[in-house]
Amino acid sequence: xxxDEILLGTxxxxxxxxxxxxxxxxxxxxxxxxxxxxxxxxxxxxESMTPLSQLGQIGCPEPRQILIKPYDASIIxxxxxxxxxxxxxLNPSSDGKVIRLVLPPLSEERRRQLGKxxxxxxxxxxxxxxxxxxxxxxDADQALKDGELTEDAHADLKEQVxxxxxxxxxxxxxxxxxxxxxxMEI
Length: 186
What we know:
- The chain is an alpha+beta fold.
- It has two domains: about 5-25 and about 105-185, Ribosome-recycling factor (Topoisomerase I, Chain A, domain 4, Orthogonal Bundle); about 35-100, Gyrase A, domain 2, CATH 3.30.1360.
- The chain contains four helices and six strands; from the N terminus they run αββββαββαα.
- It has helices at about 5-25, 75-85, 110-145, 150-185, and strands at about 40-45, 50, 55-60, 65-70, 90-95, 100.
- A hairpin with a 2-residue loop joins strand 1 and strand 2 (about 50).
């Protein structure tokens, strides 16, 4: 495996880890309504588990309200049950055609708890990034051992992997800081 392949593979895995973190952070509730809070919720509809986003339109007509308009009105009860079973702490209200979710304001204590959750997700991502660096360095060591890289190319490759890691660590910090600031808004 050449230096370019190792570097490319490492960068792809680093990018995937940061994208996973971004997805996790979308699901953390802030004071504002967002369709991403419920879009991935699994609903038992038509005898299978289906993401809510595939069962209806999800919108936010007001800053603290989510409106769900199912494509089929017969699954409203199943959607309500899935929302109540989730750990979002939201109570759905339905008029038979649409479901409304009103997000109550977050207490200061709950904001701090969610801030800790965000930081924990960030730390997990940083560990994943460091594991990717370790694997990239192992690949570089193996390529050196197999004679595919010279000593200088090996040292350069390890330095490039480290630089990549630093860049992605910065992205993680930015994501965590942005979400934390969003949480602390009143």
